[in-house]
Structures are given as structure tokens and as C-alpha cells.
Amino acid sequence: MAENTWLVVGLGNPGPAYARNRHNVGQMVVDELAARTGSGFRKHKTPALVAEGFVSAGGPKFVLAKLNSYMNVSGGPVAALLRFYSLDPSRLIVVHDELDLPFDTVRLKQGGGHGGHNGLRDIAKAADSPEFLRVRVGIGRPPGRQDAADFVLRDFAGAERELLPNLVSDAADAVELIATSGLQAAQLKIHSPS
């Protein structure tokens, strides 16, 4: 089963109070992917909501997950999902918000540091490897002296909300490209200015 299966985890915090926060853009992306696969999220044996499906006939299988834990303790649930589906961390794609990228930017990478992102730090520790793939969704830096922790837990601003569906769609496209064409081909397409 693991041969052409990808675990795609959209990082965020659980519950409706956080649903539209910048920090939850990863969950917005897996919601988009679930819509594309025609599958709904269900409770799972691991601490997560899971949707399984295919975006295209004969294409890779996606196991889409939204964790029931808070962002900073994402590692345990992700490690449980990897074990449950018998997947190696190299088959894990984590979709997350990225302060160090301008809003409306998507960047892809494999491995590396966590850049102060506690969710990534916890996943790397629990999975015993930082070598998972990341779809980094740019949310920009907070204005003025606003604290970063406060900024990420706020909803997107009005002008951002208009562009948000395109950003979420671009990030979902990036996940599909990684799974179907590999990281390098996906980077060439996503990172190149159109």
C-alpha cells in the first residue's frame, strides 16, 4: 500500500475558533485536496481526522490528515499516522504557514531546520527525521511591532481573504505535483515566476 501513498498533513489548531487563522492555512489546503478527491474527513484510530482518496484515476493515493492536537504538539499524531499506514517519513508532506515568505507565495523543500516553527520541530523529533517534504505557504510577517505568535493566531485580513482561495489552490497543486512528478519538477514549476 505504501508504494504510491502519501500522507499529507495540514498543520493547524483544532476547533472552529482557529479555523480561519493564518496558522491554519495548512488545514485549508488539505480541505481543498479532500474536495478534489471527493472524500470527507472522518475520525480515525490516531488522534486525527483523516480523508483518503485519489485526485486522478491511477494517480497516487492521498491520506489527508488534520490533527486533533495543537500545532506545537503535532509530532505524536503524525508519528502515529506514519506507523498506522506503514509509511516512511519520506512519504510525508507537511503543509504549513511560513512567516518568512511573503503572503501569496508557495515554496517547497525537503528536510532542513524548523525555522522556529514549533509544529515542524515536534514532527521532526517524533518522526525521528527532519527529511519529510514541506509545502511552505507564505503568510508574511506581522505589521509593525505585532508579536508573531499573536499574528499567526489571527484571521487573514480583508485584502488577503480575497487572494486566499488562489493561494490555497496553488498549495494544493504543489502537493499534487510532488506526489506525481517528484520534488524537483514540482519546485521548477511552483518556484518559477509565471
The CATH architecture: 3-Layer(aba) Sandwich
The 3D shape can be described as globular
CATH class descriptor name: Alpha Beta
Mean pLDDT: 94
Percent of residues in β-strands: 15-25%
Distance between the termini: 36 Å
Q: Which secondary-structure class do the elements indicate?
A: alpha/beta
Overview of the molecule:
A hairpin with a 6-residue loop joins β3 (48-54) and β4 (61-67). Helices cover 36% and strands 21% of the residues. A seven-stranded mixed β-sheet has the order 2-3-4-1-5-7-6, sandwiched between helices. It is α/β, with parallel strands linked by helices and 194 residues long. The model has no long low-confidence stretch (mean pLDDT 94). It has one domain (2-191): 3-Layer(aba) Sandwich (Rossmann fold), CATH 3.40.50.1470. The protein has helices at 25-37, 75-84, 118-126, 148-152, 158-181, 183-191, and strands spanning 5-10, 42-43, 48-54, 61-67, 92-98, 106-110, 133-138. α1 crosses α5 and α5 (158-181) runs antiparallel to α6. The chain is built from six helices and seven strands, in the order βαβββαββαβααα. The radius of gyration is 15 Å and the shape is globular.
